[in-house]
Amino acid sequence: MKKGIHPKLYKKAKVTDLSTGETFELASTKEEITVDVTNLSHPFYTGQHRIVDTENLVKKFEEKRTVAEKKSRRTKSEKRSRRTNKTSEVQGRERLTLKDMLSQIK
């Protein structure tokens, strides 16, 4: 191993978690490290669910959802009656074959 080309190793580097304020030590090439999220504060490791919404995306979604819920919806019976009306109209008309349609054009 060449001398003088490797960075200095700090065996007790101080790591500070900005979200919780907790600190711990580990080996690093920097003496002090500040991080936003660590295993002490990340929802995957802690089991706590947090929503980080910097652009109000959740609020916008909730507003869209309430508007959509206010719109009138057709019930199943209304849909069924419209469908039966359409099929009865089609059944009332004569069904022409392609040959019959072409003969009407001439």
From TrEMBL:
InterPro entries on file: Ribosomal_bL28/bL31-like_sf, Ribosomal_bL31, Ribosomal_bL31_sf
Domain of life per record: Bacteria
A GO term, aspect molecular function: structural constituent of ribosome
Positions of transmembrane segments: none
Stretches the record annotates as Disordered: 65-106
A single GO cellular-component term on record: ribonucleoprotein complex
Keywords: Ribonucleoprotein, Ribosomal protein
Name of the protein described by the UniProt record: 50S ribosomal protein L31
